[in-house]
Amino acid sequence: MSTSSASEHTHPRIAIVGGGLAGLSLLLTLHKRGIPATVYERDVHRNSRGRLGGNLDLEWTTGQRALRENGLEDAFRMHSHHEADVIRICGKAGVPLLEHGGSDPKDESLKDSRPEINRRVLRGLLLDAIPEDSVK
Ligand SMILES: Cc1cc2nc3c(=O)[nH]c(=O)nc-3n(C[C@H](O)[C@H](O)[C@H](O)COP(=O)(O)OP(=O)(O)OC[C@H]3O[C@@H](n4cnc5c(N)ncnc54)[C@H](O)[C@@H]3O)c2cc1C
């Protein structure tokens, strides 16, 4: 007698190699749409290589979209830095002499800005949004 679940009959078994930002985004996208998948990652811990972090700036139509369409827009807003693409050159007294980039801070939309988020933090947000047992 077969013990396989109904979803195994309706979906192929999907393995994603690498639990980086792309692999985890794909897993979350599938999971949110009811398609089971498993990520295989060689790092043993979410903070492995965390020191190699650095910040990523995410655009509205690419990185932000992947988060927005998978229910992580609020989390992204909370952990990203809206003003990160501003370049400001100040005089000795701290008075700005030149300012470049940046959107209106009062503008709630992130469409025209590229907020930065720490790579390790972003990986954590994605990992927290997927079932623990879907990453091996
Ligand atoms: C210096 C730099 C700056 C960048 N800045 C930006 C930016 O500002 N904005 C932006 O959107 N993008 C930026 N990027 C690009 C962004 O980092 C990549 O698009 C993104 O990380 C790709 O995700 P990934 O999952 O394909 O790869 P990665 O994030 O590199 O993840 C790959 C994962 O696969 C695992 N792995 C590898 N081989 C195996 C294996 N055989 N078995 C199991 N696991 C394996 C690794 O351990 C790793 O966790 C930048 C990239 C670099 C290098």
Automatic annotation (TrEMBL):
Keywords: FAD, Flavoprotein, Monooxygenase, Oxidoreductase
GO MF entries: FAD binding; monooxygenase activity
Oxidoreductase listed as a keyword: yes
Pfam families to which the protein is assigned, alphabetical: FAD_binding_3
Keyword Glycoprotein: no
Domain FAD-binding, first and last residues per copy: 14-80
Domain of life: Eukaryota
Protein name: FAD-binding domain-containing protein
